[in-house]
Amino acid sequence: MFIAPQWENPSVYLARKEYDMNTEKRLVYMDHAATTATRPEVAAAMVPFMTSTFGNPSSLYDLAKVSRTAMDGAREEVAVALGADPEEIFFTSGGTESDNWAIKGIAFAKKAQGTHIITSVIEHHAVSHTCEWLKKQGFSVTYLPVDCFGMVNPADVEAAITPETILITVMMANNEVGTIQPIAEIGAIALKHGVLFHTDAVQAVGHIPVDVRAQNIDLLSLSSHKFHGPKGVGALYIRSGVELDSLIHGGAQERGQRAGTENVSGIVGMGLALSLAVKGMPENALRITALRKRLTEGLLAIPKTYLNGHPEKRLPNNVNVVFAFIEGESILLMLNRRGISASTGSACSSRSSEPSHVLTACGVPLEVVHGSLRLTLGEETTEADVSYTIDAVKEVVQRLRDMSPLTPPELRSQP
Amino acid sequence: MFIAPQWENPSVYLARKEYDMNTEKRLVYMDHAATTATRPEVAAAMVPFMTSTFGNPSSLYDLAKVSRTAMDGAREEVAVALGADPEEIFFTSGGTESDNWAIKGIAFAKKAQGTHIITSVIEHHAVSHTCEWLKKQGFSVTYLPVDCFGMVNPADVEAAITPETILITVMMANNEVGTIQPIAEIGAIALKHGVLFHTDAVQAVGHIPVDVRAQNIDLLSLSSHKFHGPKGVGALYIRSGVELDSLIHGGAQERGQRAGTENVSGIVGMGLALSLAVKGMPENALRITALRKRLTEGLLAIPKTYLNGHPEKRLPNNVNVVFAFIEGESILLMLNRRGISASTGSACSSRSSEPSHVLTACGVPLEVVHGSLRLTLGEETTEADVSYTIDAVKEVVQRLRDMSPLTPPELRSQP
Amino acid sequence: MYNEKVMDYFEHPRNQGAIEDADGIGEVGNPECGDTTKIYLQVEHDVITDVKFQTFGCAAAVASSSMATELIKGKTLKEAWDLSNSAVADALDGLPPKKLHCSLIAEGAIHAAINDYRTKRGLEAWKEKKESHAEH
Amino acid sequence: MYNEKVMDYFEHPRNQGAIEDADGIGEVGNPECGDTTKIYLQVEHDVITDVKFQTFGCAAAVASSSMATELIKGKTLKEAWDLSNSAVADALDGLPPKKLHCSLIAEGAIHAAINDYRTKRGLEAWKEKKESHAEH
Ligand SMILES: Cc1ncc(COP(=O)(O)O)c(C=O)c1O
Ligand SMILES: Cc1ncc(COP(=O)(O)O)c(C=O)c1O
Fold first, then answer.
1. For residues B311 and D43, what is the distance between their CA atoms, to the nearest angstrom?
2. Helices A95-110 and A125-136, interaxial angle, to 10°?
3. What ranges do the domains of chain C cover?
4. How far is the C-alpha of B319 from the C-alpha of B375, rounded, in Å?
């Protein structure tokens, strides 16, 4: 079991549990792309909105006004982070709902004008499964390919546009390989052709700069738990003037666009977490990028190991490699025994054994695609964590290669 | 501003702030149907799942297992409260999402079989606006009337069924007037005709006994913040064997039926809150019913005041009356100045001045429908609160009647 | 939702009440809509010497009726006729956008009261410039 | 996900490795599917005197291959042939339902190794009762 963390400095050491007290095992969290710990100060800010100033924001009395004011503050914080206006921010239950809302909302609102949607092959399932469902409802979907770095070519986007096209949806940064897409270029193309442009920025917001105006983005999804906010809350930015159907109908919350009593404490937490993430971004991005480079080099020193995703245009915190001759789940479980939390592909698919659609789309050969490891760093990652991780991965890879029938003799420890 | 509560006994005195410290104003929360305070012990149980054992439940490592185990526990608690199996419980972002999912999910899954939906005129907007949207997608909807107590007649349900009918959705207890519907009877009719039956039990769960088997319910919506759990989390019960489309597509969470990283802390909080609510239900229902009766009698002693909803078959905590000659928003604002939080109609519509569709459907005459007041009691409501409220309402009604051009001379204080 | 001035005029309405034997009485709105205002005028030499109001309605309707009575007291009938609902809203330091229409009811009731006074004296009723606000 | 026994056999696999000059070698699965197991047999008088395995795959594949080698060591070839994947899973105190198929790979590799031994000695290969599991 996990034990209460010993904060050194709560704003730096987030969910830092250096050791499991029972086993004296070192604990290293290397899966920040899956989720992050809520900052202690964020959780502390949330609690009063649950137990004390708990009013329903839709009500008329003073208690409700406290909730409304707090939500307004969070809306402002989210807007500032995106370069948007507060009126363009709509709160949701997370990145997945935002993606579903943006895509289905536009599809249903614009189906009289056209039924064609353009997306990429490397989208998160929140986008791709939504598109698949829309296909069953009579829409058509073009899946753009990516190059070997996981990058969409803007020229492909332009070529795919037809008079029927109502929406382009391409993610800002990929959750598995970390590749950052040419969003401003795609936005410009969308603008030129008068097609709406949605981007799933769940992995980007709070980690790299975002500017919806400069990047010509009409709709943008984000999720709080990816930047040290609480789980179960997110937002959709909708450029003012863009009309779409609601996904969740009911009361008049969120200016009649997203019904349901607002998750006030979650929204407050998200706002605070995002403003802290944006404030710390320049410094953190530099420090984490340096750690990431050290980690990447350390891992690529293992023979028959290959980097996935773009060498430069990637999220500061993302390392994704494949090791030939071994399999991902085994790597994860052995790392887990060494106190390291990591991922193979996205968290959602890690419990199924199908190879990652992202790695496959990047052209990673089938015989090595199963041996992928994603390590994603965070604010609280230290130099010592990186060193420990490199050593542990080396040891685990060797153990598994010794166990594998595929390993050539020269890579075995006892040939 | 509100100040930190002084708990006498946290499990009884939830968000009890007897006085506003700045103004020395007495505070009486009489709007438990709009939302409730999260129990302090529930909030306390949630925090570690944000800051410490924060793992993404879909991941493979130990940290994630803690999250999964906690969610399993909550699922069990919710299932027990409904008489369901844990596998039949799916977590959502609240009552509104559950309603949308149930209705749209069945509609899209069954549209080849039929496109007719039966509902009532007194549903929450989460149901009625969803039905309205489905009408735009080609479905047809029958809205059943209610009697003057806000009660649906099961015979009307049966009469409305056609070979095209795919779903009956009638709420368990009304949020405005508190009337409890004949759910078991409607369930039996649905079963007999092989039509699926959904009930919005958002106001019922945690307040009155629910048994999905005995009541023949196929789908049931509930929302955590109505029973002293956190906002932004709810559940949909789906009887095993019932197939419906997802509302939110993406990852494989919730057995592939509801995508999105789970709101683990919220789910844990909901489970705990519901188990506490169910445990305290027999005692609380008795005590609150007695308080409600005293409050009702006190208010009905004001001349030209009428009770809305059913005199007996209503939620233990719901009082809803209309006062002739005066208007609801004014009543609320004057009560707010006296420290009392109340509602006119449902929280969602209280900021618009259209008369409540529920009261209108119950046949409340248009010239009095604007003067409605809903007071909903809770666990922490005391005898003193009730006395204070009766006095305050009396005073406010008199003041407003003195101000109104409609008031007959004999009801004025200075005629 | 409302600013403090609106709340003050709602909680402590100026000129609330009726005038026995008023020279002019106007009532607009209807209870089915949720808003009704009645204005009582006392007029001497074309000047409003006293005015009272009664309102059934939301806080915006009450406050704007009350403010309107303050603004027309001591004014000529012509000046009172020309009082716009936006001037009333301004005098209240503003109303929430969706409550702006509630201030129309005071303007309407004043017009009705003035015309009641005029027709009782055999004068021609003044015409509304724009459409009547009586049934806002 | 996995119970402790599975994790123990995954972390400390029994009989892992290769046998030089094995009497029978069988390999099934393919790296594109994510699972491959290779079994090495030493046979004396129809009895398996030594056995080793190598596995590329998930923890379930590793643990069940390892467990299977333990179960067939000292058994006759016929007994080893009849070892079912569910017996292996049982010996591991169970596998998660969606990982049950991973234990098939051990069964398949054992069969392949036995038939390799038999055909090398000019004996007829035994037939699978059910469909081959080689390409699970
Ligand atoms: C009867 C009923 N249904 C649905 C809802 C919506 O629930 P939530 O606010 O959790 O979305 C509510 C409460 O607002 C309700 O009272
Ligand atoms: C790129 C991307 N999109 C969408 C999501 C879904 O976000 P959430 O889990 O908040 O629903 C995720 C994370 O899981 C993601 O990485």
1. 86
2. 30
3. 4-121
4. 5
Distances (CA, A) of B166 to B119, B191, C106: 11, 12, 51
User: Taking 70 as the threshold, does the pLDDT of residue A387 lie above it?
Assistant: yes
Degrees, nearest 5: CA angle D99-A336-A305: 90
Topology of domain A42-276, per CATH? Aspartate Aminotransferase; domain 2 (3.40.640)
Sequential DSSP letters for B61-113? SHHHHHHHHHHHHHHHHHHHHHT--GGGEEEES-HHHHHHHHHHHHHHHHTTT
A vs B: CB pairs below 8 A: 312
Model confidence over D62-84: pLDDT tens digits? 999 999 999 999 999 999 999 99
C32: Cα separation from own chain's centroid: 19
Among residues B155, B153, B166, the alpha carbon closest in space to that of B118 is found at B166
Q: Say what the pTM is.
A: 0.93
Interface test with A, best of D53, D55, D56, D136 (most A CBs within 10 A): D56
Model pLDDT, residue D132: 47
Which residues are paired to D16 by β-bridges?
D53
Classify strands A89-92 and A234-238 as parallel, antiparallel or unpaired.
antiparallel
- CA of A95 from ligand 2 middle (Å) equals 5
Burial class (CB in 10 A: 0-12, 13-18, 19+), D32: middle
Residue B225, φ and ψ in degrees, nearest 5 = -75, 0
Please report which ligand is nearest the Cα atom of A235. Answer: 2
Locate the chain B residue with the closest alpha carbon to C25: B405
- Residue-wise burial string across B356-393, b where 16 or more C-beta atoms lie within 10 A, e elsewhere: bbbbebbebeebbbbbbbbbbbbbbbeeebbebbbebb
Q: Distances from the Cα of B345 to the Cαs of A167, B177, C97, in angstroms? A: 39, 8, 22
Residue B325, amino acid: F
Cβ neighbours, 10 Å, residue A301:
10
CA of B208 to the centre of ligand 1 (A): 16
Please tell me the distance from the alpha carbon of residue B368 to that of residue C53, in angstroms, as a whole number: 21
pLDDT digit string (tens) for B169-213?
Answer: 999 999 999 999 999 999 999 999 999 999 999 999 999 999 999
Query: How far apart, in whole angstroms, are the C-alpha atoms of residue B300 and residue B309?
Result: 14
* Average pLDDT rounded to a whole number, residues A99-122: 98
Decide if A315 contacts A204 (C-beta within 8 A): yes
HSE-CB at B202 with a 13 A cutoff on CA atoms is: 34
Distance CA(A236)–CA(A257), nearest Å, equals: 11
Which residues are B222's β-sheet partners? B235
Q: Which residues between 13 and 32 in chain C have a beta carbon less than 8 angstroms from any beta carbon of chain B?
A: 13, 16, 27, 31-32
Domain residue spans in chain A? 5-39+281-411, 42-276
pLDDT surpasses 80 at A21: no
Report, at the CATH architecture level, how domain D4-121 is classified: Alpha-Beta Complex (3.90)
Which conformational region is residue B313 in: left (phi greater than 0), alpha (psi within -120 to 50 degrees), or beta? Answer: beta
Rg of the Cα atoms in chain A: 22
Sign of torsion over alpha carbons B406, B409, B410, B411: positive
Chain D closest-CA separation from residue A304 CA (Å): 15
* CATH class of the domain at A5-39+281-411: alpha beta
- Rounded to whole angstroms, the Cα distance separating A300 from A307 reads 7
Tell me if A91 sits within 8 A of A235, measured CB to CB.
yes
Which pair of structure tokens corresponds to residue B331? Answer: 């009543």
CA atoms of A183 and B147, how far apart (whole Å): 57
Give me the residue from B35, B108, B333 closest to A60, CB to CB: B333
Q: What letter does residue B375 receive in the DSSP assignment?
A: E
